[in-house]
C-alpha cells in the first residue's frame, strides 16, 4: 500500500506542480498572452471577419416587411447611444453588418455605426454611417452606382439606391453634408481600403431612399 | 358571481384609466421634448445664427429615444436656459452668423455664464456635463489676433482674465493651456482674425446617468479648427505589429543572452 502511494506520487505531484506552475504563468503573463494571441490572429487573417447576423441580432427583432407607409414618431422606440437597432446589407457585394446607434470605437468594433448627430432611416434628412475599412466595410469599394443598400431596423425596412461613390477628405464638409430634408444615406470608411493605419481620406457612398416607411412627428 | 363581475368591471376601468393616463404622460413628455427642439430650431439673432444640423439632430435623437422622458418642468428649465444663452449671444454678437463668430465676441464672464447655464439645464435633465476646457479650438486653432503689433504675443482664452502664457497668436495661434486670457495678445504680426476656430471651453459632452453619450461636439481635429463629424475608420494595426515585433526582439535578446551565458559556464 505504502509502495503504491509512493508510485502514485510520481504522477500526481508533477501534475499538481504543472497545474500550479501553468496557473501562475498564465495569470502573470495573461495580458501579454492575450495581446500576442490577438496580434497573431490579426496578422494571420486572410479575410475580413464575418459578424454573424444571428449572433448579433438575436435579442433584437428586426422588421422583415413593412406594414405601413408612414410611422408615428410617438410609437417608435428609438435606441439610445450604443444600442444596436438594425442591420446594414449590400447584397451585391456581400456586405452584412449590425448597425449601431453611435459611431464610437466600441460600436465600430462590433459593426457599423450611425452618427448620433444624423437622422434615423425613415426620417427626413441624412443618415450617416461609418465602418472600419479592413473589417466591417471592406467590401464598400466594390459597390457600384445603381446597386441597392438595405437597412433593416427594428421599425422598418429601408432600401436605398446607390447614387454616387467618391473619395473625400475627412474634413470635407460638402461630402458629409447633413442638411436637407431628403431621406438619404451616406456610408463611409477609411481609404485606401486596404490601408493599415490611419488615413485622411474616406471612401464615401451615397444612397437615396427608394422604399421604406417615412417617420412623421 | 356579482362580486366577480364587479371586480372584473373595476379591473377593466382601472386598465383603461391607466392606459389613458399613460398615453397622456407619454404625449406630454413628447410635446415637452419637442418644445426644446422647436426652441433650438429658432437659433439666435433672429434666426440668422442657426444651430448646426448635427447638434440639432443629437437633441432630436435624445428626446425621441424610447428611454427618454422629458417632463414639462424639465422642458421649461431647458427652454429658459436656451433663451438665456440666446440673450447673451444676441447682446454680445448681434451680427454673428456662426458659432465661431459668436464665441469670438463673448467675454470671459459671458462664457462662464453660459457654462453655468448649461450645467444648470443639464442637472435639471439628469445629464452630466464635461467641458472640453481649453483643449480643442482654444488651444490649437482659436485665433483671436487681429492686428500686427507683436508677432509672438499671446492670445489665450478668456477664462480667468490673466494673460495666456503658452498661447501664440496668428493664423495658427494657440491658446493658453490654462484657459487664461491673453489681454496683450490681441495683436500679432501674423495675426488673422480667427474665422474657423471654435472655443473648446464651450464645447460640452453630455452623458446620461447610464454613461451613454447624449451630445458630443463635432471632433475638433478638422482643418483650421472646423469640427468634423467624420470618424477615424482605419485600424491602427501598425502599433500592434510594432509592439509584437518589439516583444519578439526582447525574447530573442533574452534567448541570445542565455545562450551566451551557457557557453561561458561551459
Could you characterize what this model shows?
By secondary structure, chain A is of the alpha/beta class. Helices cover 24% and strands 30% of the residues of chain A. Chain A folds into two domains: 1-44; 53-216, Sortase (Sortase, Chain: A), CATH 2.40.260.10. In chain A, the strands form two sheets. An eight-stranded mixed barrel of chain A has the order 2-3-4-5-8-9-7-6. Chain B is mainly alpha-helical. Chain B has helices at 2-41, 53-64, 72-92, 99-105, 108-125, 137-141, 237-265, and strands at residues 128-131, 204-207, 213-215. Chain B has a three-stranded antiparallel sheet with strand order 1-2-3. Chain B is elongated and about 85 Å long. Residues 18-28, 134-198 and 220-226 of chain B have low confidence and may be disordered. Chains A and B meet through helix 1 and strand 8 of A and helix 1, helix 2 and helix 7 of B.
Q: What is the fold's blueprint, element by element?
A:
The complex is a heterodimer of chains A (about 220) and B (about 270).
Chain A: H1 2-43, H2 53-56, E1 70-72, E2 84-90, E3 95-101, H3 105-110, E4 112-114, E5 126-130, E6 148-153, E7 157-169, E8 184-191, E9 201-211, E10 214-216
Parallel strand pairs in A: 1-10, 3-4, 5-8
Antiparallel strand pairs in A: 2-3, 2-6, 4-5, 6-7, 7-9, 8-9
Chain B: H1 2-41, H2 53-64, H3 72-92, H4 99-105, H5 108-125, E1 128-131, H6 137-141, E2 204-207, E3 213-215, H7 237-265
Antiparallel strand pairs in B: 1-2, 2-3
Helix pairs in contact in B: 1-2, 1-3, 3-5
User: Regarding quaternary structure, how should these chains be classified?
Assistant: heterodimer
Helical run tally of chain A: 3
Net shape of chain A: elongated
Biggest sheet descriptor of chain A:
8 strands, mixed, barrel
Q: Give me the strand/helix succession of chain A.
A: HHEEEHEEEEEEE
User: How many beta strands in the DSSP annotation of chain A?
Assistant: 10
Tell me the fraction of residues in β-strands of chain B, as a range. under 5%
Q: Roughly how many Å is the radius of gyration of chain A?
A: 24 Å
Class from secondary-structure proportions of chain A: alpha/beta
Helix content of chain B: 40-55%
Helix share bin of chain A: 10-25%
**Structure annotation, total helices of chain B:** 7
Q: How would a crystallographer describe the biggest sheet of chain B?
A: 3 strands, antiparallel
What is the 3D form of chain B?
elongated
Roughly what fraction of the amino acids of chain A lie in strands? 25-35%
Spatial ordering of strands, largest sheet of chain A: 2-3-4-5-8-9-7-6
Architecture of the largest domain in chain A, CATH level 2? Answer: Beta Barrel
Amino acid at each position: 500500500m505504502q509502495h503504491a502511494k509512493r508510485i502514485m506520487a510520481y504522477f500526481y505531484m508533477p501534475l499538481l506542480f504543472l497545474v500550479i506552475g501553468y496557473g501562475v504563468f498564465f495569470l502573470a503573463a495573461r495580458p501579454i498572452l492575450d495581446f500576442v494571441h490577438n496580434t497573431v490572429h490579426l496578422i494571420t487573417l486572410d479575410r475580413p471577419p464575418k459578424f454573424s447576423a444571428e449572433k448579433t441580432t438575436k435579442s433584437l427583432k428586426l422588421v422583415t416587411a413593412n406594414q405601413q407607409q408612414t410611422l408615428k414618431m410617438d410609437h417608435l422606440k428609438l435606441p439610445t447611444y450604443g444600442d444596436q437597432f438594425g442591420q446594414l446589407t449590400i447584397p451585391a457585394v456581400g456586405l452584412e453588418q449590425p448597425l449601431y446607434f453611435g459611431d464610437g470605437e466600441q460600436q465600430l468594433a462590433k459593426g457599423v455605426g450611425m452618427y448620433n448627430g444624423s437622422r434615423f432611416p425613415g426620417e427626413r434628412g441624412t443618415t450617416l454611417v461609418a465602418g472600419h475599412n479592413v473589417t466591417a466595410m471592406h467590401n464598400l469599394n466594390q459597390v457600384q452606382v445603381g446597386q441597392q443598400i438595405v437597412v433593416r431596423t427594428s421599425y422598418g425596412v429601408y432600401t436605398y439606391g446607390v447614387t454616387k461613390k467618391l473619395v473625400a477628405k475627412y474634413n470635407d464638409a460638402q461630402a458629409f453634408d447633413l442638411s436637407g430634408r431628403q431621406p438619404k444615406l451616406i456610408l463611409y470608411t477609411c481609404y485606401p481600403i486596404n490601408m493599415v493605419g490611419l488615413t485622411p481620406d474616406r471612401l464615401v457612398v451615397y444612397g437615396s431612399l427608394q422604399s421604406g416607411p417615412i417617420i412623421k412627428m | 358571481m356579482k362580486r366577480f363581475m364587479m371586480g372584473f368591471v373595476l379591473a377593466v376601468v382601472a386598465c383603461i384609466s391607466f392606459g389613458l393616463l399613460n398615453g397622456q404622460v407619454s404625449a406630454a413628455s413628447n410635446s415637452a421634448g419637442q418644445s426644446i427642439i422647436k426652441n433650438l430650431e429658432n437659433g439666435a439673432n433672429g434666426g440668422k445664427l442657426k444651430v448646426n444640423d448635427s447638434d440639432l439632430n443629437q437633441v432630436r435623437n435624445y428626446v425621441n429615444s424610447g428611454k427618454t422622458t422629458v417632463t414639462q418642468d424639465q422642458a421649461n428649465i431647458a427652454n429658459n436656459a436656451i433663451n438665456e444663452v440666446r440673450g447673451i449671444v444676441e447682446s454680445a454678437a448681434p451680427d454673428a452668423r456662426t458659432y465661431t463668430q459668436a464665441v469670438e465676441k463673448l467675454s470671459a464672464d459671458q462664457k462662464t455664464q453660459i457654462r453655468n447655464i448649461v450645467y444648470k439645464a443639464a442637472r435639471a435633465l439628469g445629464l452630466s456635463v464635461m467641458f472640453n476646457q481649453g483643449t480643442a479650438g482654444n488651444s490649437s486653432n482659436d485665433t483671436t489676433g487681429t492686428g500686427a503689433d507683436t508677432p509672438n504675443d499671446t492670445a489665450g482664452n478668456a477664462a480667468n482674465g490673466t494673460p495666456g502664457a503658452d498661447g501664440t497668436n496668428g493664423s495658427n495661434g494657440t491658446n493658453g493651456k490654462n484657459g487664461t486670457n491673453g489681454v496683450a495678445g490681441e495683436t500679432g504680426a501674423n495675426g488673422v482674425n480667427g474665422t474657423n476656430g471654435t472655443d473648446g471651453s464651450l464645447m460640452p459632452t453630455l452623458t446620461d446617468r447610464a454613461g451613454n453619450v447624449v451630445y458630443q461636439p463635432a471632433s475638433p481635429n478638422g482643418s483650421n479648427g472646423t469640427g468634423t463629424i467624420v470618424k477615424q475608420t482605419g485600424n491602427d494595426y501598425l502599433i500592434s505589429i510594432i509592439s509584437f515585433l518589439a516583444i519578439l526582439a526582447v525574447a530573442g535578446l533574452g534567448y541570445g543572452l542565455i545562450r551566451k551565458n551557457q557557453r561561458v559556464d561551459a
